[in-house]
Write a structure and sequence with these properties.
The complex is a heterodimer of chains A (307) and B (448).
Chain A: H1 4-12, H2 42-45, E1 48-57, E2 60-70, E3 75-79, H3 86-94, E4 101-106, E5 109-110, H4 116-122, E6 124-126, H5 139-145, H6 155-160, H7 163-183, H8 198-210, E7 216-220, H9 228-245, E8 248-252, H10 256-262, E9 265-270, E10 273-278, H11 280-284, H12 287-305
Parallel strand pairs in A: 3-8, 3-9, 6-7, 7-8
Antiparallel strand pairs in A: 1-2, 1-4, 4-5, 9-10
Helix pairs in contact in A: 1-12, 5-7, 5-8, 7-8
Chain B: H1 3-6, H2 18-37, H3 43-52, H4 55-77, H5 86-99, E1 100-101, E2 110-112, E3 123-125, H6 127-149, H7 154-173, E4 190-191, E5 196-197, H8 200-203, E6 210-211, H9 215-240, H10 243-253, H11 255-260, H12 265-292, E7 294-295, H13 302-315, H14 320-349, H15 356-359, H16 361-375, H17 384-391, H18 395-400, H19 403-433, H20 439-446
Parallel strand pairs in B: 2-3
Antiparallel strand pairs in B: 1-3, 4-7, 5-6
The chains are: A alpha/beta (307), B mainly alpha (448).
């Protein structure tokens, strides 16, 4: 709790407005809509477009009618207080959950019924909040696993080791090394993933995701556990990925300093509904966000400080 | 890591071929031991050798090695616990029964490159062809069993495979009346399956034409079965170094992450199952044709599945050579070792363990497993990766335990020591010049 406080004050720029504790969640004001003044069809114009997604777990509505788009070559983020449904929404995008209602489009194609591994090979790559590397494999092998869907050799060509298979392996290895070099851990190619330092493990996860040749990189709290210098370097890295590789990046983050600096557009979720969407400046000054996201904290803190 | 190796992947040195060469040497040594050396030795020397290591035991060891290597692909490589592996062994054996024998009520005669006399009734197909057919049949059965079950994880998968193992055995037990037809002989099974033929070697008079359970036949079987094991080892080693092997490892490590990285889980697991089943089919044919010359449902009990799993676990899951040695060791114990150990103890202590020890083999093997789990969990010859897991804590673990601070401590200590040594040297040189200064440090030491 105390750790999240500095973040929250940074965002608003305004002091925490004490909120009437009796106010019901209903009067948070009108929900900002996704309608963008671009006039482009969101399905065609976005790399990823989630159309009116609803997910229910039994009676609980985890995500309620959220629409969300990621334009090509953009850096967007998804924020919200704990339990807002960010990760659930994320899991709908990657295919771990099936939405109760709604559709997900990747490059204008409906991918709602498609399995996670197929989505991955279609260009939807992700990293994990709590690092999930293949610990007993080397850094290089970790990256090469992600190339699985782009490689072709089968059982027989592997056993016989045909020239084609050998060439493919060689090229895959070279690509893997390039990627490791790209994220800055080229020296550790032969290290087991578990022996890498925490920061390098995060880098390796990104290298692994990039081996899928993704169109979108979904990063789930990528700067967790990083110090300020590292997260600053991370900002540059994200833009480098975007500009050099032409990959769109979607971030889920808690670190507001990172979010505000890095994102071109921000979507705010609260209790499963989208309460705001816009540029960092919009979000910074959005009263609904401040109330829902920061105000509550302030109210609680205020209450606690009463003698 | 060096630039020379950069393009080709892992560097291949002679070290890389140490084990394969060793294996070939051992097989040929065993063959020559029984082919040329043993018959010429005096009884006093050859007796103990053929008691401790009878040639039939060597063949059994080799046959079990095929099985263990097959299960290793499923359990060791892909990390799928399979408790019903005996199903593939049984199907392989019965394929041999169908295609290499004159079973029950067969009505047609069919010969295909078979070493048995052409007039013999029944179906007689060449051993090597049957091996391929049985392997393919088992792979198909593996896919059929796997398709619905491989969606399950961990314990659930183990239970379902256990069930399938039993189902197959029960099917063969009741196979004398499948919709009114006798399919596989029921309880007595199919007997007198053709022995392995030697083809050109037999025609040239070098080897016996048929490798029956005679001493000469058993000796030559070492080479045949040894060759089959070599193929299994070769395939196991090759298949793990590539796209598929990596995908299996990844699934073993973290299924969710693997699927998120584009690895199709069910398909990849099915392939592991199919390859393992293929080996199981080879093992089944080798067993039916080379060792028992008969198949019956009672031979394919759950205990056999456990035995193969024990071989894999004791040998070192995932390590081809460890698994091979584990298979040799356990099947030797099972077949000759326990009995001979009993005989030795009887001679010393006057007990009657000779017959008891082999009967209690599962108790003893179980005890062995418990001891292994206590003292060497990773197996006899573990896979390099597993060894790292067992012995060295991961970096994040170590750091959370404060290894970094320990390192720093060690460093500062080293620096201090170096300083102290340097101080002493300086002091000594100064003292040589000025004897008065010498007293300063000693006085300082006395002060506190």
């Amino acid at each position: 709790m105390s750790e999240s406080l500095p973040d929250t004050t940074q965002v608003g720029g305004t002091p925490n407005v004490p909120r009437d504790p009796a106010a019901s969640p209903d009067d948070r004001g009108p929900v900002a809509t996704m309608a963008r003044p671009t006039g482009v069809d969101p399905v065609e114009g976005s790399v990823l477009y989630a159309d009116h997604i609803t997910i229910r777990f039994g009676g609980l509505v985890a995500v309620d009618d959220v629409s969300f788009s990621i334009p090509p070559k953009s850096v967007v983020s998804l924020i919200g207080p704990n339990g807002a449904g960010k990760t659930t929404f994320f899991n709908v995008l990657t295919g771990l959950y099936k939405p109760s209602e709604g559709t997900v489009f990747l490059n204008g194609k409906d991918i709602t019924p498609i399995k996670p591994h197929v989505r991955a090979s279609m260009g939807l790559a992700r990293t994990f909040q709590n690092i999930r590397l293949f610990n007993l494999m080397t850094a290089e092998e970790n990256v090469m696993v992600a190339m699985h869907s782009h490689l072709k050799s089968g059982v027989f060509s592997t056993i016989v080791r045909t020239p084609g298979q050998r060439r493919e392996e060689r090229e895959a290895r070279d690509t893997a090394r390039e990627l490791l070099e790209y994220v800055g851990i080229g020296k550790s190619e032969g290290e087991l993933a578990r022996n890498l330092s925490y920061g390098d493990q995060r880098r390796l996860e990104i290298a692994r995701a990039m081996a899928l040749q993704p169109k979108i990189l979904l990063l789930d709290e990528p700067t967790a556990g990083m110090n300020p210098q590292e997260s600053a370097a991370f900002n540059d890295f994200v833009y480098r990925v975007r500009d050099e590789k032409g990959i769109s990046v979607l971030l889920i983050e808690h670190d507001m300093a990172v979010i505000m600096k890095i994102s071109e557009r921000i979507t705010v979720l609260d209790r499963g509904t989208m309460i705001a969407e816009g540029t960092p400046d919009d979000i910074r000054n959005n009263q609904t966000v401040i109330e829902a996201y920061l105000g509550k904290t302030g109210t609680r803190e205020g209450k606690r400080q009463k003698p | 890591m060096s630039t020379a190796a950069a393009g080709r992947g892992p560097a291949r040195t002679w070290q890389h071929f140490k084990w394969p060469i060793g294996y070939v040497v051992v097989i040929f040594l065993l063959f020559f031991l029984y082919y040329a050396i043993l018959p010429n030795l005096v009884k006093g020397v050859s007796g103990p050798i053929s008691q401790w290591l009878p040639v039939s035991t060597i063949n059994e060891c080799l046959m079990w090695a095929i099985m263990a290597l097959g299960l290793n692909v499923v359990v060791g490589y892909a990390g799928l616990l399979d408790l019903g592996y005996v199903a593939f062994w049984a199907l392989g054996g019965y394929t041999a029964g169908w295609l290499m024998a004159y079973p029950f009520n067969w009505v047609w005669n069919f010969h295909l490159i078979s070493p048995v006399p052409p007039k013999a009734p029944g179906t007689h197909i060449n051993f090597w062809l049957v091996i391929i057919i049985a392997g393919c049949l088992c792979a198909i059965l593996g896919v059929i069993i796997g398709a619905p079950t491989l969606r399950l994880r961990g314990d659930y998968l183990a239970l379902v495979t256990l069930g399938f193992g039993e189902v197959i055995t029960q099917f063969f037990k009741n196979s004398n009346n499948v919709a009114g037809k006798n399919v596989a002989g029921g309880d007595p099974g199919i007997s007198s399956i053709d022995p392995i033929g030697t083809g050109p070697l037999g025609a040239a008079g070098i080897a016996p034409k048929l490798l029956t359970n005679s001493p000469a036949g058993n000796t030559w079987k070492i080479l045949v079965l040894g060759f089959l094991v070599a193929i299994c080892i070769f395939v196991s080693l090759r298949i793990r170094e590539g796209r598929l092997g990596r995908a299996w490892l990844a699934i073993r490590e973290d299924e969710l992450a693997a699927s998120m990285m584009g690895v199709p889980l069910v398909r990849t697991k099915l392939l592991a199952y199919a390859v393992g089943a293929f080996f199981g089919g080879i093992g089944g044919v080798a067993n039916a044709s080379g060792i028992t010359t008969a198949v019956s449902p009672s031979g394919f009990d759950f205990g056999k599945s456990v035995l193969v799993l024990l071989m894999v676990v004791l040998g070192g899951m995932g390590n081809v050579w460890g698994v091979t040695i584990g298979a040799f060791l356990l099947s030797w114990l099972n077949s000759a070792g326990l009995k001979q150990i009993g005989v030795q103890i009887d001679q010393i202590a006057g007990t009657r363990l000779e017959a008891v020890l082999p009967r209690y083999n599962y108790i003893i093997l179980g005890l062995l497993l418990v001891l292994m789990m206590l003292f060497r969990r990773e197996g006899l010859i573990p896979e390099a990766r597993t060894k790292a897991l067992m012995n060295i804590p991961s970096r994040t673990e170590a750091e959370s335990l404060g290894a970094e601070s320990l390192e720093v401590e060690a460093e500062t200590e080293a620096v201090e020591h170096a300083d102290a040594a340097a101080d002493a040297r300086i002091l000594a040189s100064v003292a040589a010049v000025n004897p008065v200064l010498e007293q300063a440090p000693t006085r300082k030491e006395e002060e506190p």
